[in-house]
């Protein structure tokens, strides 16, 4: 019978210390990248939530001020949404078709048309090439929200041809 030597250990396959350190370094780098992506995702989720809330509040305020048919302005804060505030402005503007067409490069051709001559006679106005001046109200709502960001919504309402 053969006796086993108690001091002798059979050779086992194992990882060296350097291999373990390299693996831990790779694992740490990957873990850092994953955490970075998760943090960015949470940040984008919060930003998306803020923007969605700002759009909702702007549409709500726009629907509220659309009933006003004269120039006006105002501002305030939302008590139910801390950090959110608004400002609105209603401004009367004029849109002269002739000036618009001239900017597009077709002014002289428009001026000579029968329709333009008719509209000038109808208006009795030689000031405008066509006699068509649209009066508009421009409604603007600005929502200010955290981190000095803002969302702006505009709407136009025609008041008629003058």
> Largest sheet, if any?
4 strands, antiparallel
Structural class of the helices, strands and pairings?
alpha+beta
Quickly count the domains.
Answer: 1
Low-confidence parts lasting 5 or more residues at pLDDT below 50?
A: none
Terminal-residue CA separation = 121 Å
Overall form: elongated
Number of strands: 4
What is the helical fraction, as a range of percent? Answer: 40-55%
Quaternary status? single chain
Strand order of the largest sheet: 1-2-3-4
Radius of gyration in whole Å, from Cα?
Answer: 35 Å
Give the ordered list of helices and strands.
Answer: HEEHHHEE
Mean pLDDT: 83
How many helices in DSSP terms? 4
Fraction of residues in β-strands = 25-35%
Description:
- This protein is of the alpha+beta class and 162 residues long.
- It has one domain (17-161).
- Helices cover 44% and strands 27% of the residues.
- The protein contains 4 helices and 4 strands.
- It has helices at residues 17-65, 97-103, 107-111, 114-123, and strands spanning 72-77, 85-96, 133-145, 149-161.
- Strand 1 and strand 2 form a beta hairpin.
- The longest helix is centred in the first third of the chain and has 49 residues, at 17-65.
- The chain starts with 16 loop residues before the first helix and ends with a strand.
């Amino acid at each position: 019978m053969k006796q086993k030597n108690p001091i002798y250990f059979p050779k086992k396959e194992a990882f060296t210390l350097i291999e373990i350190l390299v693996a831990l370094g790779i694992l740490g780098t990957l873990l850092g990248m994953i955490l970075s992506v998760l943090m960015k995702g949470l940040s984008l989720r919060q930003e998306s939530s803020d923007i969605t809330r700002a759009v909702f509040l702007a549409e709500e305020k726009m629907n509220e001020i659309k009933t006003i048919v004269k120039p006006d302005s105002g501002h305030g804060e939302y008590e139910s949404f801390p950090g959110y505030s608004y400002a609105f402005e209603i401004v009367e503007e004029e849109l002269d078709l002739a000036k618009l067409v001239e900017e597009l490069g077709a002014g002289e051709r428009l001026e000579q048309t029968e329709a333009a001559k008719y509209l000038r006679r109808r208006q009795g106005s030689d000031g405008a090439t066509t006699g068509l001046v649209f009066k508009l109200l421009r409604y603007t709502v600005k929502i200010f929200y955290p981190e000095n960001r803002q969302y702006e919504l505009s709407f136009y309402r025609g008041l008629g041809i003058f």
